[in-house]
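Progress report, Aim 2. The chain analyzed during this reporting quarter is listed below.
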Amino acid sequence: RVAFTMSSWPVRAISETARRVSFAGFSRAAESKETLTSSFTGGLSPLLLASVPACALLFALPGPIVRAVYGVQWSGSSGALRFLALLGLLRIIFELCYDFLVAAGRSRALLAVQALWLCALVPALIYGGHRNGLMGVGVAHVAVALVLIAPAYLLTLGAVGVDPHRVAAVCWRPVLGGAVVATVALGVEQAAGDSF
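Predicted structure tokens for the chain:
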């Protein structure tokens, strides 16, 4: 529970704030397919710039963060937090996709994506938990989100006219920046040793 709660911090802080304006903005842009597509990529970029560094730090430093916030007794949740931080980032993106697709009038497609997620997640969580405990649950969450749900959202966005290449063009810089943040954080943790 600790790992899931902490991985949800960026979702709550960033995504919920963005959702207050994203749906209204997408609804206004729904008049034109090109405007709607531009508004999606235009909304995705600042959302990633805000959320990737936070999620990268949760990914890179789960142990020190858990110990600092909850204490040593909760250190066991740090393995799951590493993977759930990635899920948190994906959830932020998926919530923007959700708002966009509702504004575009694709409620049935959204229901299909959500049903796919639920049907795939339940057995994956059972398997992951059985194989590797809390960390297996975290891996299962991320695996389902990356392997099934991200492509499902991309297909659904494509049906509305959002070019996956434009989405990739918006995503690569923040993702690269997140990798740099994670690498630097891991380097600092290694250099600090037990004092960190």
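The helical segments are 2-7, 9-29, 33-60, 62-70, 78-103, 107-160, 164-192. The mean pLDDT is 88. These observations will guide the mutagenesis work planned for the next reporting period.
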